[in-house]
Amino acid sequence: MWDWKYAWDILPQLLSALKMTVWVTLCAFVVALIIGLLLAFAARSQFKPLSLITKGVIEFIRNTPLLVQVFFLYYSLPVLTGISIPAFYAGVIGLGLHYSTYLSEVYRSGIEGVPKGQWEAATALNYTKAQTWRSIILPQAVPPIIPVLGNYLIVMFKETPILCAITLVEMMLTAKNIVSQSFRAFEPYTLVGILFFIISYIASLLVQRLEKRMNLQRGK
Amino acid sequence: MPDSWIDFLPTLLKGAEITIVVAFFSAILALVVSFVAGLGRLSKLWIIRTLTAVYVEIFRGTSLLVQLFWLYFALPFIGIELPKMLAAILAIGLNFGAYGSEIVRSAVLAVPKGQWEATVALNMKPWQRLWNVILPQASLRMLPPFGNQLVELIKSTSLVYFITMADLTYQAMVLRNNYISWTTEILVLLLLMYFVIATLVSLAVRLLERKLTAGRL
Amino acid sequence: MLKAIGIDEQAELSKVPGQEGNRIDTGTKPIVKYTGVTKSFGDLQVLKGIDLEMQPGEKVAVIGPSGSGKTTLGRMLMTLEEPTEGTIELDGELLWHTHEKGELVRAGEKHLHRMRSNVGMIFQHFNLFPHMNVLRNVTEAPRKVLGLSKEEAEERAVSMLGKVGLADKLKMYPSNLSGGQKQRVAIARALVMRPKVMVFDEVTSALDPELVGEVLEVIREIAEEGEMAMMLITHEMDFAKEIADRVIFGAEGRIVEQGTPEEIFDNPKSDRLQSFLQRFRSNGI
């Protein structure tokens, strides 16, 4: 059933692929953080066409599968633009863009969580719009959403196996390759599952601790 | 060679059928599991609480694609061979059931304590308390998050492509292989079809929600 | 030991259907009896030894400063809070305990279920079921718990809702009712179960002042009918004085003084009660 020696032999390969998985996750997360914030601003824009289009784009991305979006980036974009994208960048952009729509929602709730009186106080003190955002709104809006962002980082980590479809050599594809050489699937896929579990479980414990500490600081 | 993108529709619709079948059955499994595990986590018996917590942590801690691969490719090595359809429904249903159990659990916990007390004061039996008073109220709270989960579930059915089930994504990728120069049309069409399905479903959930809450809360 | 045998006899008696209503000696035996009851939440002891009896049909008002454990007293009778020490008897039978091989043990849900049919409670925050209309709120328990048919339950409910002045609101949902109306529905909901004892837990405290009157009026009418014993945990001193047969003043987890309304309100003996009443009057509540 379970071959310890075989499992031990393939573990190094999987561990080095894990580095790639983590790296893709982090890069995609940065993309999602930035684009998500831009989307959140654009969706709040006073300029109606911009906010409508933004909301439409968010809705479209959220209601279609990440896998198909990644296929589109990897296979279609080169045809349309004439520039081919390496699998890594297609993966980072695809994953990042997909989750930017979720993060824009998180930012929105954070921003709307700041009481209206704060805006009014800023106006009363004659802050400019940029000053209001920078020194009044964002400092209050961002801390409460940090644990939520942390949870999305974990969610994105668990989505990376999809990227094996565009030949990004992360953990899943590495396991697939091992299986196709050895014709033994039980150990590789079980190990991949265990590695995913360990990392996401530890990460979620960290997020929980962070959340608790922040709640304490805010005196909840 | 196809004359226009219309020619792809019959093949894609055939794939959509599989997508919908997988989504339908895994959604039902997920719903059942959500309630069983969600209530299990609130059980008085520690053994039930522990077992359900372990299930939830395992399925939330690993990713859906890994679970699907494990059920379909790894299990045969210990003598369990599942048909594709069953493996797909099990993987998606159990994965979303784990997330759904959190929705059920928190919705039940969100019902005010006074409601429990009123059921005690009216001398209801424990299952009557849950079934007649607590769950009907909790269900209304569950509806919006369940609606979101349903859209996520429909999107996730695209992963059955990896175990070569002839769903929407798989049919599209076969078409693309045959007509490489039509890649963009096919993929745009594919995106649009998912979008239509997911949007219709989320609209339906929202309508249901409005109907159920009308005049009450 | 003698006492324990007595209790067992009572238990046998009350299991016989039809025997409960017309027992001849009800006048002499208390319907509720607290013996040495204490209650602690963690380190905090909110009740420090309560002995209390209520006769069938007796209206007992419980007054006292907040934090004196009044509400806990009522919640124990409704089995919402378990006594830490001591026993409560209901209609001659132990509420929270059963005898097993001569020893007192914590009773199971089955026993509690049977005992609870003698008690009802009205809550400060009404606790109506928001997903059911007024009629359903009142018929749900008679149908599910007492096993009445839909017709029987509705007949009972409609007549009770008529009594509390809400016959025209049957199809409304709680969210569309005023606080006073909600509380009257809650009273009807508890009354259709026909308990022998009803706990009123600060039933007007959550109401706007202008809605208090209508609820008190309904309670006054119920009290005048006389059959049901009532434990009125309240801050409404005038009301307590008017309808109670006996008033209990509790403070810091003990019963400090009890007596007729006249004795308590017009002739308070203890300093604690005197200062409590004084503060109440000067606050003009």
Give a brief description:
The complex is a heterotrimer of chains A (220), B (217) and C (285). Chain A is mainly alpha-helical and 220 residues long.
Q: Given the C-alpha coordinates, what overall shape of chain C results?
A: globular
Q: What is the CATH topology descriptor of chain B? A: MetI-like fold
Report how far the terminal alpha carbons of chain B are from each other.
58 Å
Q: Order of helices and strands of chain B, N to C?
A: HHHHHHHH
Compute the average pLDDT of chain B. 93
What does this structure look like?
The complex is a heterotrimer of chains A (220), B (217) and C (285). By secondary structure, chain A is an all-alpha fold. Chain A has a single domain (8-219), classed as MetI-like fold, CATH 1.10.3720.10. Chain A is built from 8 helices and no strands. Chain A has helices at residues 4-44, 48-62, 66-81, 87-112, 116-124, 129-159, 171-182, 186-217. In chain A, helix 1 packs antiparallel against helix 2 (48-62) and helix 1 (4-44) packs antiparallel against helix 7 (171-182). Chain B is built from 8 helices and no strands. Chain B has helices at residues 9-40, 46-61, 64-74, 84-110, 113-121, 126-156, 168-178, 183-213. Chain B is flat. Chain C is of the alpha/beta class and 285 residues long. Chain C contains 10 helices and 12 strands. In chain C, the strands form 3 sheets. In chain C, strands 8-9-10-3-11-12 form a 6-stranded mixed β-sheet, with helices on both faces. In chain C, helix 4 runs parallel beside helix 6 (179-191). Chain C is globular, with a radius of gyration of 19 Å. Chain C starts with a helix and ends with a helix. Chains in contact: A-B, B-C. The A-B interface holds A 1, 59-60, 62-69, 71-72, 75-76, 79-80, 158-162, 164-165, 172, 175, 179, 184-186, 188-190, 192-193, 196-197, 200-201, 204 and B 57-58, 60-67, 69-70, 73-78, 151, 155-159, 161-162, 169, 172-173, 176, 183-184, 187-188, 190-191, 194-195, 198-199, 202. Chain B: GO terms for molecular function: transmembrane transporter activity. Chain B: InterPro entries: AA_ABC_transptr_permease_3TM, ArtM/GltK/GlnP/TcyL/YhdX-like, Ectoine_EhuC, MetI-like, MetI-like_sf. Chain B: One of its GO terms (cellular component) is ATP-binding cassette (ABC) transporter complex. Chain B: Its main location: membrane. Chain B: Belongs to the binding-protein-dependent transport system permease family. Chain A: Keywords: Amino-acid transport, Cell membrane, Membrane, Transmembrane, Transmembrane helix, Transport.
